[in-house]
Specification:
This protein is mainly α. 73% of the residues lie in helices and 2% in strands. It has helices at residues 7-24, 44-53, 55-72, 78-102, 106-135, 140-177; strands at 28-29, 38-39. β1 (28-29) and β2 (38-39) form a beta hairpin.
C-alpha cells in the first residue's frame, strides 16, 4: 500500500491505463467470430503494469482503461460490456502477474502469459454464461453453444495476441518503468 503514495508509480500506472484506453479505439473483429466480439490491444499496457509493479498495478491500469472507455461514451455495450472487459482483463493480468512475480525469467514470463490466458478464458466463460450473456438477454438455450463456439475460441486468441505483444514489448519498456526486465538467459553459477 505504500506504493499507492508514490507519485511516480501512480503516474506510470495511470499512463499505462490511459494507453490501454487509447488502444481500445483500434479494435477490430477477428475472422470467423461474431461481429460483437472485437479484439484490441488494450490489455497489453495493464499486463506490462502487472509485470513491472505487480497485480495491483495491473488491476489499477485495467480499471483506469475501462473507466475512461465508459466515460468516453464509446462503449456500444455500456456498463455491461465495460464490466465484461474489466473481468476479462483483470483475470488475465492478475494471473500472469502473480506467476511472473515468483518466476522472473524468460520461461517464467512465457508460463505467466500462458497461465493468464487460460485463467482469463475460464473466468470470462463462466462470467459470460452466468452473468453477462443473461444480462444481454441472450436466450438461455443459446448461451452454452455461444460459449463453446465463440467465447472460448475468441478469448484464447485474445490471450495469445495480447500475451505475444506483451512479451515482445515488456523488455523494451521496462527500463522506462524502472522495473526488472524479463531475464533472457538463466544466470550462470559462479565458481
Amino acid at each position: 500500500m505504500a506504493r499507492l503514495r508514490d507519485t511516480r508509480y501512480l503516474v506510470k500506472v495511470a499512463l499505462l491505463g490511459a494507453l490501454g484506453f487509447l488502444l481500445m479505439y483500434l479494435e477490430f473483429p477477428l475472422p470467423f467470430m461474431p461481429s460483437f466480439l472485437k479484439f484490441d490491444f488494450g490489455d497489453v499496457p495493464a499486463l506490462i503494469a502487472g509485470f513491472a509493479f505487480g497485480p495491483l498495478a495491473g488491476i489499477l491500469a485495467e480499471a483506469i482503461k475501462c473507466a475512461l472507455f465508459l466515460l468516453s461514451g464509446r462503449s456500444e455495450a455500456g456498463i455491461i460490456g465495460v464490466s465484461a472487459n474489466f473481468v476479462t482483463g483483470a483475470s488475465l493480468v492478475v494471473a500472469a502477474a502473480l506467476v511472473y512475480q515468483r518466476v522472473r525469467t524468460l520461461k517464467g514470463a512465457i508460463l505467466a502469459l500462458f497461465v493468464g490466458t487460460i485463467v482469463m478464458t475460464a473466468t470470462i466463460t463462466v462470467a459470460d454464461i452466468y452473468i453477462f450473456l443473461p444480462l444481454w438477454n441472450v436466450p438461455v438455450e443459446q448461451i452454452l453453444p455461444m460459449a463453446v463456439s465463440a467465447i472460448i475460441p475468441f478469448n484464447l486468441i485474445k490471450g495469445v495476441l495480447s500475451s505475444t505483444a506483451t512479451f515482445l514489448l515488456y523488455k523494451r519498456v521496462s527500463a522506462w518503468l524502472g522495473a526488472v526486465a524479463v531475464v533472457t538467459q538463466p544466470a550462470k553459477a559462479r565458481p
